[in-house]
Protein: (S)-2-haloacid dehalogenase
Amino acid sequence: MAGAARRVYAERLSAEAMDNFVEAFRGYRLDEVLGAWKPFADVVQNSVERSCKRIGIQFKPEDAQRIYDEIPTWGPHPDVPAGLAKVAKEIPLVILSNSMKNLIMSNVEKLGAPFHTVITAEEVGTYKPLMKGFEYMLDTLGCGPEDITHVSSSFRYDLMPAYDLGIKSKVWVNRGHEPANPFYEYTEIKDIGGLAAAVGLEPVLKRA
Structure:
């Protein structure tokens, strides 16, 4: 989302203003998903509008639409397909996404691994970090918190509510956009290439 915002506003904002916009946009997106469910297009538009107001530039609905329209075109990080494929041979993969049904499948197809279940915020009626989606996922899978490993690069949307729900096995993908927080009891990996080792499917390679 930050990259899309930078592309849309590249010719209108200075470097400092752009950084301020992206940070505001990040915070407002979180704030927008904490209330009653609404379409993700509204989440994006409201967040862009509030960000524009905060830094003092004109809001144009078409700018928010451009950001939203990018979502189905996004592919995974380069490390993801091979890393997921290794795990998928032994462990069913599940997606719990803050997305819409009409957006998510084009992204899933690019991940390069089979998925047992794909659950969207639209299906659940709430967005992460609210707990209802996690509870819905466990009910759908017919299992408890002790039966899954939750993998995410985000504390605020994923690992914090996973911790609160009693999910003991958690993996944090440290992509550099949130600081480490060991309180939440996770295994840290730098990318999905390390996931197979984190879940015990490969030996952990230690530095000499």
Observations:
- The chain has two domains: 2-72, 80-198.
- DSSP finds ten helices and five strands in the chain.
- The chain has a mean pLDDT of 95.
- The longest helix spans residues 15-32.
